[in-house]
Each structure stands twice: as structure tokens, then as C-alpha cells.
């Protein structure tokens, strides 16, 4: 069975849940409202709820569980995660007034660190990961993960912390103080990085060629006192392999959020571990003949110690079922993605083997319909599977869930850009509407914009009438009607601009065209980009009334492309 969960339109504003979260792939910050609704429907009514989060990452979900009053068991095998969770999950707000007495209190200690000055005694981040001088940074010969000033800030702050709180063999109060300072520094380290999110590479030049996020990257670092909340419940924070962690800790509900693609967190976030551990591993300075680094990002070598089995197709199902066997909880929830490494059917079977498994999903695609953006092309769906070990599996549950997913996949497909000619070949089309009904009786008519994007979305009732076979046929016909690639979409948009009588629509297609062309503005598509840009310039000159609005945008994309081609 599946359950759509209404998503509140109200924005979460509590800083404990929304602020000071490290930038983290796969973090569930935007799903907190949805997850909170599911958690409260499963909690141990009238008794304490012990909530386990073995893949806690940034700690977004563990924070929610703490705020909901649960006893939280948070674990992740990356050291930086243990530190941020030890701070935000392990420390009470009311503790703050009793800490940092020898420095005159928490405010004073933060002020002191934020005002540190001078050369750090043994610079490390500024030596290996930042340029000599921000203004004269040279991405050919220097690593540009931080501005010179911010790299020095990290060196000074981290050295200050380690000089006062050396190692991890500290008493409880000192540990709390160290976690607070490090969690705050790690947030700065993750926020002001000159990367597009992960540390496997930095931008060539500050802000990258698009100069996006430049303000964030250049802004001087300043550590903030963490936003904490009080709780009288017991918290456990660990740094173990998830399977070991769950076999040592029982809970009422366990929330599993393992990686679902091949990207390893240890290498993607190596910089956070470097600052967390402050063990200063050697960084290769070897250079090629042209002066560039052989190891461009200087990733620490020991990241392979946390190479996750969940990132490999051949290992993930075994790791997942082994993990389930080790968990002692009535409820086990799994966040996963329809495009994840373990196919949905396999996941469902593994979970259903242990009891009734239901699918919860955010109720936002199926019933909202209406407006859609020209640029939405997302095929993925976030799933939450909930296993109740006390209930027996229902007979047709898997079939119902698969059917539901197929309907969702169809809705997602309907949001993509189509090729009008292909659409007209595959379906009866009239008056801007497409007839998607199998018997072509007009019972399933959807309005479009020039047969390029759908304006309407089908109602649940319309879809329910279709058999599984019919739904699958419809899906494959629609897939066959999509724009095959960006180049084809660009061609469709040029035609639509020509055909549009309304300036508003022409501009809309023009903006989309520029977005599409921007996608080719990379070295590997150089020929295609240059050919498309030449064609657009010809059109701007020959049919200026139609295409003139493209000229400014095209010039800016061309200058970004030129920089990329040179780099
Ligand atoms: C999708 S992220 C979790 C995101 C988290 N729920 C959040 O909101 O930030 C997956 C996490 O699993 C951790 N991880 C992967 N394999 C692990 C393992 N075998 N044991 C413990 N942690 C693991 C990674 O370090 C990463 O932080």
C-alpha cells in the first residue's frame, strides 16, 4: 500500500532545523516536514520513542528527531559527521552557559577566535588548498578551495582549538567545548568553499566561470554560536559502520538513509575530515611540465577506509539485507530514490521479507498539477519505505506499490519537453490538446503549449481507468515523443520562437533556448556549441524581430564558454 503525505505549505523557520547545516549531498532538509509527519504516526505513544539514524550525515533528520522529543541514536562513519552531530544532537542549549568559563563564556570565546590575527604557526589549509593571494590567484598552478584570507582563518581557528583541546582524550566538559567550536568551524569550511558542493574539485577561478555563488565564496568566515535545543532524553552519537552500530543499539524506529548512487562521501567531503581530524596528511605537490598539480584536488588518501558498499550495484543489496538483519526495531524506514543503485522491486522484496512494507511519498506531484516550469526534467522520485515487523505483508501490496510508482513516473515524464512532430505522429492532436486515451475517444485529453510541454496534468481518476498494460504502452509512446537531446530541443525552440505570435511566449521560449544552449558550453561539446552559437548569431542578424532578444544572453554564454575552452 502507499500513502501520500500532504506537504505543509508553511516554511519551517526554526533555526535549529534550518540553519548551520553543512552543505551535503543527499541531506533531507527539504523533506523534514514530510518525515516528521511519518515519524509521528509511528511513534511510541505514551512511552519514550528511541529513534536511530545510522547514516546521519549532516544530522538534519537527527535534529528533527531530537526536536520531536525522541531519544536519538545518531551515527555516521565519517568523522566530520560525528563532530557536528555530537554538537547539535549531544549538547543542550542550557549547557552553553556553563561552558567556556576560563575564556569568559561562549560569546567571548567565539569573539576571540573570530578576531585571531597573524601567521598561523604551521599553516596547512592556506599552504595546500588556497592561493598565495586571492586577487592574483592562478588556477593553473594553485588550488583554489578557499580565498587566502579564509584559508588563514581556518588555519588560525583550528590551531587555536587544538592547542587548547588536544586530541580526543578529554573530559566531558572539554569534549563539549571542542565539539561546539569544531561544528561551528566545519559549517564555515563547508559554506565558503570555492566548489560546486563537493571537494573533488574546486572552481577554476573564484566563483567558477559562471561567477555563481561568488558572494558566498568570498565572504569572510565568521564562526557562529550553534543554535541548540534542550532535551532530557538520552542521546548516543557514534562513528561506526552502520551495521555495527545497529547491532549494538536497539530502538523503536530506525531511519535508514544510505547512499543511493556511486558517489563516496569520504572523497567528496575529504576537506571536512581534514579540518575535523587536523592530522595534516601529506598533500602531493608534484607538478606536470606545465606547472599544474598532478593531484588537482589533493584528496586525502585514506578516504578509501569509508568506501561504502551501498555505492556499488554488486554489493548494495547484500549490505542492505545484512543491515536489516542486524536492526532491532519494530519500524524500519528507508529513504531511497527510484533511480538508485538497488532497483525498487529488489528493495521492496528485501524489506517485505521481514514484514509489512508500505510506501510513503510526498503528495506533491500527483495532485498539484497546473503550472509547470519549462526547465523541469527530473525523473527521480524520493521514496520512503516503511517496514512494520509486527504486521504480515499484504497479498497484493507489491503490485499496488509498483502501479503507484508507474503512475508517478508517468506524471514526471509528462513534465519533460516534447518534440511536437513526434507527438503528432504518436497521438491524435487537436487544438493544442493531445489525446492520450488508448481508444482515442478523447476521454484523456491534456492541454499543451504547442505540443512542446503539457499545460495540464491528469487526475488520479483518469489514470485509475487505465490497465497496467495501457499505462506501460502510454509511457513508452510518450518517451518516444520526447526531445531526444538538447540539440533537438534547441531546434524545436527555434521553430517555436518563429511560430509564436505573442511576444511573451517568444521570450519564454527564448529564455529556455538560452538555458539549453548553455548546457553545451563545455569543452567536450565545443564543436556543437560553436555551430549552435553561429546559427543563433545568423538568426539574430537575419530575423532580428524574432530572435533579437537572444543577443545579450548569447554573448554572455559565449564568454563563459570561451573561458571554459581556454581552461
Ligand atoms: C545520504 S547521506 C545521509 C544524509 C542525511 N540523512 C542528511 O540528512 O544529511 C548517507 C550517509 O551515509 C554515510 N555512510 C555510508 N556508508 C556508511 C556505512 N557503511 N556506515 C556508516 N555510515 C555510512 C555517509 O557518510 C553519508 O553521510
Determine and state the CATH class of the largest domain: Alpha Beta
Distinct bound molecules: S-adenosylmethionine
Q: What is the average per-residue confidence, as pLDDT, rounded to a whole number?
A: 92
> In percent, how helical is the residue content?
40-55%
Question: For this structure, what is the CATH homologous superfamily of the largest domain?
Answer: Vaccinia Virus protein VP39
In percent, how much strand structure appears in the residues?
5-15%
Rounded to an integer, what's the Rg over CA atoms?
A: 27 Å
* Uncertain spans: 364-379
Number of helices, counting only DSSP H or I runs of 4 residues or more: 23
Going by CATH, the architecture of the largest domain would be 3-Layer(aba) Sandwich
Describe the structure.
By secondary structure, this protein is an alpha/beta fold. It folds into four domains: 201 residues, Rossmann fold, CATH 3.40.50.150; 125 residues, no CATH class; 64 residues, no CATH class; 81 residues. It contains 23 helices and twelve strands. The strands form two sheets. Strands 1-7-8-6-5-2-3-4 form an eight-stranded mixed β-sheet, with helices on both faces. Strands 9-10-11-12 form a four-stranded antiparallel β-sheet, with no helix packed on it. Helix 8 packs antiparallel against helix 12 and helix 15 runs parallel beside helix 18. The longest helix is centred in the first third of the chain and has 20 residues. The two termini are 52 Å apart. The structure holds S-adenosylmethionine. S-adenosylmethionine binds next to helix 3.
Amino acid at each position: 500500500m502507499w500513502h501520500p503525505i500532504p506537504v505543509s505549505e508553511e516554511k519551517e523557520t526554526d533555526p535549529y532545523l534550518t540553519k548551520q547545516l553543512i552543505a551535503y549531498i543527499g541531506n533531507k532538509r527539504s523533506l523534514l516536514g514530510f518525515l516528521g509527519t511519518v515519524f509521528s504516526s509511528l511513534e511510541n505513544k505514551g512511552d519514550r520513542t528511541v529513534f536511530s539514524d545510522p547514516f546521519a550525515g549532516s544530522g538534519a533528520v537527527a535534529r528533527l528527531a531530537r526536536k520531536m522529543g525522541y531519544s536519538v541514536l545518531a551515527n555516521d562513519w565519517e568523522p566530520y559527521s560525528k563532530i557536528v552531530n555530537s554538537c547539535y544532537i549531544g549538547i543542550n542549549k542550557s549547557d552553553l552557559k556553563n561552558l567556556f568559563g576560563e575564556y569568559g563564556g561562549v560569546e567571548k570565546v567565539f569573539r576571540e577566535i573570530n578576531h585571531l590575527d597573524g601567521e598561523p604557526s604551521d599553516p596547512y589549509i592556506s599552504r595546500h588548498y588556497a592561493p598565495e593571494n586571492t586577487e592574483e590567484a592562478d588556477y593553473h598552478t594553485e588550488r583554489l578551495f578557499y580565498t587566502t584570507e579564509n584559508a588563514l582563518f581556518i588555519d588560525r581557528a583550528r590551531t587555536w582549538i587544538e592547542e587548547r583541546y588536544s586530541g580526543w582524550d578529554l573530559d566531558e566538559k572539554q569534549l563539549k567545548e571542542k565539539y561546539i567550536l569544531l561544528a561551528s568551524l566545519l559549517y564555515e569550511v563547508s559554506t565558503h568553499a570555492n566548489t560546486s558542493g563537493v571537494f573533488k574539485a574546486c572552481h577554476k577561478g573564484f566563483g567558477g566561470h559562471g561567477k555563481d555563488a561568488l558572494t558566498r565564496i568570498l565572504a569572510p568566515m565568521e564562526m557562529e554560536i550553534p543554535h541548540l535545543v534542550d532535551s532530557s532524553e538520552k542521546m548516543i552519537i557514534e562513528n561506526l559502520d552502520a551495521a555495527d552500530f545497529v547491532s549494538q543499539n536497539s530502538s523503536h524506529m530506525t531511519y535508514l538513509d544510505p547512499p543511493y548512487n556511486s558517489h563516496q562521501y569520504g572523497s567528496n567531503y575529504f576537506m571536512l575530515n581534514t579540518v575535523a581530524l587536523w592530522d595534516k596528511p601529506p598533500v602531493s605537490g608534484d607538478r606536470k611540465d606545465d606547472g599544474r598539480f598532478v593531484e588537482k584536488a589533493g584528496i586525502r588518501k585514506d578516504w578509501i577506509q569509508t568506501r561504502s558498499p551501498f555505492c556499488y550495484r554488486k554489493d548494495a543489496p547484500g549490505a542492505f539485507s545484512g543491515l536489516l538483519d542486524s536492526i532491532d526495531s519494530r519500524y524500519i524506514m528507508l529513504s531511497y530514490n527510484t533511480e538508485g543503485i538497488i532497483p525498487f522491486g529488489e528493495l521492496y522484496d528485501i524489506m517485505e521479507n521481514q514484514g509489512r512494507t508500505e510506501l510513503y511519498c510526498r503528495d506533491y506531484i500527483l495532485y498539484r498539477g497546473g503550472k509547470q516550469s519549462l526547465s523541469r526534467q527530473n525523473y527521480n522520485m524520493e521514496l520512503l519505505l516503511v517496514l512494520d515487523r509486527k504486521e504480515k505483508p499484504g497479498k497484493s501490496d507489491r503490485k499496488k506499490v509498483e502501479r503507484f510508482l508507474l503512475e508517478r513516473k508517468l506524471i514526471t515524464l509528462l513534465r519533460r519537453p516534447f518534440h511536437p512532430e513526434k507527438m503528432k505522429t504518436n497521438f491524435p492532436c487537436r487544438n493544442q490538446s493531445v489525446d492520450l486515451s488508448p481508444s482515442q475517444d478523447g476521454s484523456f485529453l491534456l492541454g499543451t503549449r504547442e505540443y512542446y510541454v503539457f499545460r495540464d496534468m491528469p487526475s488520479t481518476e483518469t489514470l485509475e481507468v487505465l490497465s497496467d498494460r495501457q499505462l506501460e504502452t502510454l509511457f513508452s509512446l510518450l518517451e518516444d515523443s520526447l526531445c531526444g537531446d538538447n540539440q533537438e530541443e534547441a531546434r524545436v525552440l527555434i521553430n517555436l520562437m518563429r511560430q509564436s505570435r505573442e511576444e511573451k511566449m517568444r521570450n519564454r521560449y527564448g529564455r529556455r533556448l538560452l538555458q539549453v544552449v548553455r548546457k553545451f558550453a563545455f569543452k567536450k561539446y565545443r564543436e556543437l556549441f560553436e555551430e549552435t552559437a553561429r546559427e543563433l548569431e545568423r538568426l539574430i542578424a537575419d530575423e532580428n524581430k524574432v530572435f533579437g532578444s537572444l543577443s545579450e544572453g548569447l554573448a554572455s554564454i559565449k564568454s563563459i564558454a570561451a573561458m571554459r575552452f581556454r581552461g
